[in-house]
Structures are given as structure tokens and as C-alpha cells.
Amino acid sequence: MKILLIIITFVLTLSTAIAQLQGQAKIDSLLKELPKMKEDTNGVDLLTLISFAYRNLDPDKGVFYGEKGLKLSNKIEWEFGQSTCYRSLGLNYLSKSNYPKALEQYHKALKIDEKINNKIGIAKNYDNIATVYSYTLKYDKALSYYLKALDINKKLNNKILISSNLLNIGSLYGQQYNYSLALEYFQKALVIDEEIRNLGGIIKDLANIGTIYATQKKYSKALLNLNKVLDYLNQVGNSRAKVTILGNIGHIYLRIALDSNSNNNENRLNSTLDKEVNLNKSIEYLNSAILLSKEIGDLDGISLALYHISNAYTEKGDYKKAFETYKEYKSIKDTIFSSENQTKIANLEAKRENELKEKEIEILKKEKENQKLQRYAMFGGIAGLGIIIGLILIQRRKSEKLLLNVLPAKISKRLKAKEHPIADHFDGASIMFIDLVGFTKMSSNANPKEIVSLLNDIFTLFDKLADRHGLEKIKTIGDAYMAVAGIPEIQADHAKRTAQMALDIKSEIKYFKTNDGTEIKFRIGIDCGSVVAGVIGEKKFIYDLWSDAVNTASRMESTGESGQIQITENFKSELEKFEGNWNFTLRGEFEIKGK
User: Fold this and answer.
1) Which of 111, 211, 395, 510 is the most exposed place for a label (fewest CB within 10 A)?
2) Cβ contacts of residue 551 below 8 Å, gap of 6+?
3) DSSP label at 518?
């Protein structure tokens, strides 16, 4: 999985790198215009452009400026501006992976564009809605909206948007492993982009075409397209994108070396190239990626290249260099993780400080209210005071009970002890996501009371199993359930506890059926690793987790098979430390978003 996934997903990294480079340059220039901004349509345009530019760099700021633009467009009653702001907000929520919120903004924009007959806006909204559905693996809906957008853009003869639609449709087919159709749409997009000399589009088209050839092990064609991308990037001077392409070319040569025993000449490029030559080429390109990464301070680029160089040296039989390179890779990986954790904790602390200031104001208000109560008590006598104290105690017990219902007992005690902020790091924990397959479709036409009752029964079962095995329920998201072992109480056997709960769910969920006899099915995803945990919110507390392991566990669930428990190799290694009748089945290679 580690090898193929990097090739499949590098186009996303490339696109993001290009967007970030352009976005930062735009933000620097646009922010200078803010002091001169007037409250008119030009002001809305400026705020929307800033919001759009922030989408890949800081989507929270993107939302902030998008909402300011929306407020101004509402004030001046400019409907075109309103739809543009909603669309920009949708893009920022998409960057935050808040898919329901993104979809909500796009539909609001679509409603306005349909009202004012803005055809280009309608097509853009269709395209954006399709993207949300593709991210959430609802491929049929995604394709339907992409085709609607394509139809409008063809009628408008807007070739830039047509090529963009074709590229998106190709990507959608690629996600579904339909590589022939994916290639067909990428090549159609390339023809149009070359015709209109759209360099950004050409780069993306070639990169996607190269990706498809790489997945099909047509390495010579993959390298041909990626080298063209490299030539174009040398023209535009995009160093971050060049790091990605250099790394992937090096990685392809590593794959060629691993396939060097194949009788397929396509895989070997030609019969004169042997394994040693391809390994040397792999190391050469990967070292170029490292040099460029060091220039721009890209630790991720360095880390990824070192990992593959270590594999290349292993294949060469130079185990000393392989080990040295792997140690360097681990060192940089640990640095990245530590830096990410510190950033997350710093964000938690900053948020908590703001919340504390608000809480101090609330405390002053309550103190004044208490002073009033004391005066009333004096006039009411001892009996009145007793009633008030009794009411306070009752409310306090209710508050404590409510707190225990939404937070782990240990965290609840720390909050009551006025510990702020609560942000902890755990070296080892296992995270599990459970999703009910097809539940959204099943519930669309069902009786709401029956659906809620069924969900309550299922989640109550999950709660009981979590208590039985010592896991902490974190939250439910729609028809999904998240739990963790090893947090907030450290558990050395967190992997074993999580596996046992997952297996119990697999055996017991089969007894749940809807009133019409439909069998309830599930997917479970699990990973383990280091985690940062903390308390978010003031009025509505939530104890939540952040880490790569959390994201990967979620991806394991979303890409899993119905009725199965999908785990990472990392979790498998941790679980095998404990005795048990564990049975594993290798799933093979497949695409994981963001990995």
C-alpha cells in the first residue's frame, strides 16, 4: 500500500502546491487593498477574492472573509455577490473537510444563480457539488452533477471550464479504478487545454495521465508525461510542485527496479536497462527532490524521498546506507509530528484563553446574581436561604451528571478543578470508526421516530461494548460512531481492547434489522499511534482527538468493505503483540484520500 498510494495521489499534492503558491502571492497583494475598501460591489469582490485565496492556506480565515463579504453583499442587496460569497465559503469548508457545510453553501449559491439566470455560476455550483459527492464516495451523484456542469459549459462554449469538467470526470473514474475511462477524459481535457494554451490545465492533465499510466505499470508512458510536467514547471518556477514530480519520477524508477524480473518489456522500459541502473536513477531523482525540498523548507518532501531512497538501497543490498537513510527519515518524520502537535496544542491554548476571558465575564455576572440572591435570602430568613441552597445543590448535581454524560470522568474532574487548558499528548492509542452502510439512503423515506429509535438501539449496544472492553466513546457523527482505547487512561493493551470490541460488534450487529426486514450492515476502520486530545467548546463541551492516526482510522472506515473490519499494517503489528485468535486478510493496494 505504501508504494502505490503515493503515485496515485500525487496530483492532489501538485494541485495544492500550485494553489498555495498562487494563493499566498494573491493574499499579500489583496490585503494591502483592505484599508481602501468601500462598501460597494468592488468591496464584495475584494473580500471574496481574499476568502478564495485563503482556501488552501488557512480555510478558517477564508470563512471569516467570506462571511464578511456575504454580510456586505446582503447589505447592498447584490445577489450576484451573495452567490459568489456562498461559493467561496463552500470551497473553504471543503478544505476543512466539513462536507455537509460545504454542500449547504453550494446549494445556497445555486439557488441564487438559478434565480438570476447566471449560467456560469450554475455550472460552477454543479461542479462544486459534484466534488463534495466525490469526496464522500457518492460517485453516481458526483457524475450526475459533473455532467450537468459539462452540458452548460458546452452550450456556453467556455473551453476552460469544459477542460476542468473533463478533468474532474476523469478523476472520478480514476477513484473507481476505471482507468480506461479516466485516461479518455484526461486526454480530452489535454486536447482542449493545448488548443487554448492553458498551461495550468496542461500541467494537471499530463500529471493525471502520467498517474494513470503508473497505476497500470506502463512506466515508459508515465515517465514521458511526468517529464513533460517537469519541463513546464521549470518554465513557471514552481519549486513545491517540482519536488512532487521529482519524487514521483524517482519512485517510478524504484517500481521499475522492483518489477525488473517481469517478462513485460513495457515494465522494464527496454531490455538493456537492468535493476541496478533503475535503482541508481531512482536515487538520483529522489536526491534532487531532497535538495529542492531543503531550499524551500519542505520537510514532508525530504521525509518521503528519504523513505524511498532507503527502500532503493535495500534493493541494492547496501543495508548500511539503507539503515542510515531510514534513521534520517524517522528523525525528520518525528520532527514533523512534533511540530504538528505543538501547533495543534498552541491553537487549543489560544482558543482556551479566549474562552477563559468570556468565562470571566460570565463569572462576574453570576457573582452579581449571587449577591442579589444573598440579599433576598437575608430578607426571606433561614427558611428561604435553605430553599435557595437546596435548589443550587440540585442544579449542581444536574450539571455534574450532564458533564459526566458528555465527557470522560477524569476530564470532568479536571474541568471542575478549573484546569485550563486541557490538552494532552498520548504516545499510544487505538482509534475506531464505525459507519452504518447505506443508512442515509435507507432513512430518506423512513419514519423519523423509527430511524432514531433504531440508531439509539445500535449506539446503545456500542456504548455497552465500549464499557465492557474499556474504550472511551468520543462522539457520534450522523450514523457513524467513534471510540478510542488508551485515552484518557493509558492502556498498554489498547489495540487488543479495540480489536475485541470490533469483533463483538461484527457478531452482534447482525441481529439488528429495520421494520421491513432490511439487514443493518456496517464498516469499521481502525488505526493506532500518537494522539493529541483536548476539550473544545464552552457551552457545549466536546472531548476530541487529533492526529494522523485519527485521520487514517477514518479513511480505513470510509474505504472498507461492508461487514468487515479494515485495519492498518501499523495496528496489525501492535495487535500481534498480544495473544489471541487473530485472523488477517490482505486487501491489496488501493487509494486513500490524503495519504
Assistant:
1) 395
2) 594
3) P
Residue 372 exposure: Cα atoms within 13 Å on the Cβ side: 6
The three grid cell numbers given for residue 373, joined into one nine-digit string: 440572591
Facing residues of 431 across strands? 484, 527
Nearest to 240 by CA among 292, 278, 201: 292
Distance of alpha carbon 316 from alpha carbon 296, whole angstroms? 30
Q: Where are the alpha helices (DSSP H) in 96-118?
A: 99-115
C-alpha grid cell, residue 565 = 473490519
* Exposure string for 359-369, b = 16+ CB within 10 A, e = fewer: eeeeeeeeeee
Cβ neighbours of residue 306 closer than 8 Å, sequence gap 6 or more: 286, 290, 325, 326, 328, 329, 332
Question: In sequence order, what DSSP letters do the residues of 421-478 get, joined into one string?
Answer: --EEEEEEEEEEEEEETTHHHHHTTS-HHHHHHHHHHHHHHHHHHHHHHT-EEEEEET
Cell triple for 530: 500518537
Answer whether 244's CB lies under 8 Å from 14's CB: yes
Q: How many CB atoms lie within 10 A of CB 148?
A: 18
Residue 17 Cα distances to 12, 23, 80, 97, 218, angstroms: 9, 10, 30, 18, 26
Read off the C-alpha cell for 463: 456504548
**Cβ–Cβ under 8 Å, residues 6 and 248:** yes
Could you write out the three-class secondary structure of 340-403?
A: HHHHHHHHHHHHHHHHHHHHHHHHHHHHHHHHHHHHHHHHHHHHHHHHHHHHHHHHHHHHHHHH
Q: Is 409 helix (H, G, I), strand (E, B) or coil?
A: helix
Percentages of the chain per state (helix, strand, coil), in multiples of 5: 70, 10, 20
For 185, the enclosing helix (H) or strand (E) is helix 179-195
CA 253 to chain centre: 29
Taking alpha carbons only, the member of 47, 75, 74 closest to residue 61 is 47
Inter-residue contact 550 to 531 (CB < 8 Å): yes
Contact 330, 272 (CB under 8 A): no
DSSP-derived secondary structure letter, 486: S
pLDDT tens for the chain, 595 residues: list them. Answer: 333 333 333 344 444 444 444 556 667 788 888 888 888 999 999 898 888 888 877 888 889 999 999 999 999 999 999 999 999 999 999 888 888 999 999 999 999 999 999 999 999 999 999 999 988 888 899 999 999 999 999 999 999 899 999 999 998 898 888 989 999 999 999 999 999 888 888 988 998 998 889 888 899 999 999 999 888 888 877 777 888 888 889 888 988 888 865 544 454 444 345 788 899 998 999 998 889 888 877 787 888 888 888 888 888 888 888 888 888 888 887 776 554 444 444 444 445 445 545 555 555 556 566 666 555 545 555 444 454 445 444 555 555 545 555 677 777 777 777 776 778 888 899 999 999 887 777 776 777 787 888 888 888 889 999 999 999 998 888 888 999 999 988 899 999 999 999 999 988 887 677 767 777 888 999 999 999 888 877 666 778 888 889 999 999 998 888 889 999 999 999 999 988 888 899 987 777 776 6
pTM of the model: 0.51
Host H or E run for residue 530: strand 522-536
Longest dimension (CA), the chain: 102
